[in-house]
Design brief:
By secondary structure, the protein is mainly alpha-helical. The protein folds into 2 domains: about 160 residues, TerB-like (Orthogonal Bundle); about 70 residues, Orthogonal Bundle (Helix Hairpins). About 70% of the residues lie in helices and about 0% in strands. The chain contains 12 helices and no strands. Helix 10 packs antiparallel against helix 12. The protein is elongated and about 75 Å long. About 30% of the residues are buried.
Length: about 230
């Protein structure tokens, strides 16, 4: 979170200039850019809190945890946050603004997304609406499905149905090693082979369901990687 806090601190100072219209201290070619960037960061944070329809005190507290604001700018930043949190409309344009500014610095974009995850999970649950909000921003930032899953897992842990968790492999595994791991697991868990090892016939449905889950996990990973490769090329 260090990079996020550093960026957000700079943004807060620019936001003060934006709100009070004290633009004299900035070079002409940076005035709109810095103020716009500050507003975009505050807007995304506020609209993230609004994504599930209700802005909670926990989410506001989370915003203040990551948005390190100098005392003299607190009121102005609060005004912007309250204005932006009224609706999620327009959040894509703010994400695009940040993406353009840091298109050559993906680690910065990842820190911004990480900060948004911090706000989203503040009330204890991430709703489908919040998940869609985060996924959309991730795509605008240029992250692949695999990269989004990695960032998400770093904040929330893996979901029980995560295909990589099911196959017992890391997201960084190569395509060839993935295929090898899948074939090994499929072979070891094939219903006929499991039954031959002494599994009661009554539990055959369980073996069939596990095999189907393994096949689905592998197919999902392959499909996602194919989509990501198509986006790159």
């Amino acid at each position: 979170m260090g990079m996020w806090r550093k960026l957000i601190d700079i943004a807060a100072r620019a936001a003060e200039l934006l709100v009070e219209r004290k633009m004299d201290g900035l070079p002409p070619d940076r005035r709109i850019d810095d103020a716009s960037f500050a507003a975009a960061l505050i807007a995304l944070s506020a609209k993230m809190a609004k994504a599930d329809g209700l802005v909670t005190s926990d989410e506001i507290h989370a915003f203040h945890q990551i948005f390190v604001v100098p005392p003299e700018a607190e009121k102005d930043v609060a005004k912007l946050f309250n204005m932006f949190r009224e609706t999620t409309l327009g959040y894509r344009s703010y994400a695009q603004r940040i993406a353009r500014k840091f298109r050559n610095c993906p680690f910065v974009l990842e820190d911004v997304l990480d900060g948004l995850f911090h706000i989203a999970k503040a009330d204890g649950v991430i709703t489908p609406e919040e998940e869609e909000f985060l996924q959309t921003i991730s795509k605008i930032f240029g992250f692949s499905t695999l990269e989004y899953r990695r960032i998400r897992a770093s904040r929330l842990g893996r979901e029980p149905d995560d295909p990589y968790l099911i196959l017992g492999v890391e997201e960084s595994i190569s395509d060839d090693d993935l295929k090898t791991a899948y074939r090994r697991m499929a072979s070891n868990n094939h219903p006929d082979r499991v039954l031959a090892r002494g599994l009661p016939v009554e539990l055959q449905n369980l073996a069939n369901a596990k095999m189907a889950m393994i096949n689905l996990a592998y197919s999902k990973i392959v499909s996602e990687r194919t989509q990501d490769n198509n986006l790159v090329h």
